């Protein structure tokens, strides 16, 4: 009877534990990361009797969780990948809408600007049309500024988000370290602390939403968690941390440092996965190059328009002044070259733009080894040759391995020490700094500096076209050279004669009546080309002079209009036909961002599906099924009642036995 009582009690205890486990499962059905638990039972050691061994009841061997390390690891990596893609996509979606928008992009403002030039060129003396050019120029500059401000806001958001994410990483790392310690202590009795293990797995999963991690299980059931290329964030109960600091090369571009004890290590480029990895990837792949591409376009627009302005005359007959501000102002040059924070000297640098057509959209890193400078183009990690020019003033020039000039020079102030580094960003601030400086409509230089005409006394019907410059013109020098007109005289049967101060060459030396003859003339170092057509007669003359009163002349205005389609960006002198126009340059940027956006959206769909599949796989094994648990409740309740009935039978038998001795 005692044996029967013990058997009933063992069943009662086992069923009570099974009911508790089932109730625990049901109550945690919505607990993130919880793994369904069950208990394994075994028979107690049987007792020997004369007839054989008689069972002595049951006992609980182990309370275990339904868990797969493979599925959990798969869920963790899928979570990290999905968070990376979502962070990247959320940022590039905004950028794509900004650049390609019909009201927010640069293209509409560029079109309005050149359309205003076209309208003004049709009537160059029309002041309201000239005013419209100034208004559209200011609108274009402000559009550049606005888009640049939005990109800067994205960069600032990235910095702030990196700080916020890093705080979460450090918090979860601390949680994992504490759980590691508690699990190691609880595991000392040889059994698994299931709920603590679930909490730690969930903490690691949450950590993977912020940063890609590698988990290494240890013999004492603790986890070692590493980030980057193996930096140990959590080792047992010892926890390191991540810290966001201003960048060494660019204070506006924050970096991630791994801090362990008193040592620090920059790991920004080594971080992958999670929200942090997605933000860093977006900044490196898209944001930086977009800011540089937009800046290069703004610099090219300023350079080309200003250069053409100085090749013409305004309504007052004066040399044209710059429409846009000087991008080589001393204050702006100093912002393009930044010493690294770790430099041991006080040497500073400034960067001058020398040729906007040769500029790339890359940043550069320059280093001094104590005697020579070296540089590297960061977009493709190409080595750049640095040449020292004695000046004065002294400066450094840069060319790639093919000998192509990079479009800028650098001047060093102070004496650098060996190991000093400098960050060079030729185009980063171009769109931020562009502005209009011309405010008088009559100062727009629409007229060409030189005009040509036929002598009214000519006998033949020869016609001379208006000269066009074939190179840069110093109008002040040219005006002095053309203080008196140059005269071209046709001599039948012999080369024409050209007279006047400063004339050094007429090419070709003769022309044929009855056809269009293309000629060029060099006047005091300035080259012009023109045509003579028709049939001039002996002694007919043509004059070339300074266009002092060219009020209705629109030749320079038309050249400005033609800049819209002229290939002026990314020009390679060794490759004929290379380069892009303003519109094509911006269109290439929009196309690249649009392609990356479409790819990000496809990646988001794919990684979302992968994450859902990994979650479903894990849940199919480990998640609580309420129908199953409800069935277990009924089963274990019946088990409990049956065990209680065994005890009741044992009691009745004991009472009967006692009654026989009364």
TrEMBL record:
Molecular function via GO: structural molecule activity
Protein's cellular compartments: Bacterial flagellum; Secreted
Record keywords, A-Z: Bacterial flagellum, Cell projection, Cilium, Flagellum, Secreted
The Flagellar basal-body/hook protein C-terminal domain, residue ranges: 622-659
Annotated Flagellar hook-associated protein FlgK helical domain residues: 93-324
Flagellar hook-associated protein 1 D2-like domain mapped to chain residues: 343-426
Domain of life: Bacteria
Coiled coil (UniProt feature): none
Listed GO biological process terms: bacterial-type flagellum assembly
GO cellular component, one term: bacterial-type flagellum hook
InterPro entries: Flag_bb_rod_N, Flg_bb/hook_C_dom, FlgK, FlgK_D2-like, FlgK_helical
Residues covered by the Flagellar basal body rod protein N-terminal domain: 5-34
Homology family: Belongs to the flagella basal body rod proteins family.
PANTHER family: FLAGELLAR HOOK-ASSOCIATED PROTEIN 1
Protein name, UniProt field: Flagellar hook-associated protein 1
The species this protein was found in: Stutzerimonas zhaodongensis
Gene (name only): flgK
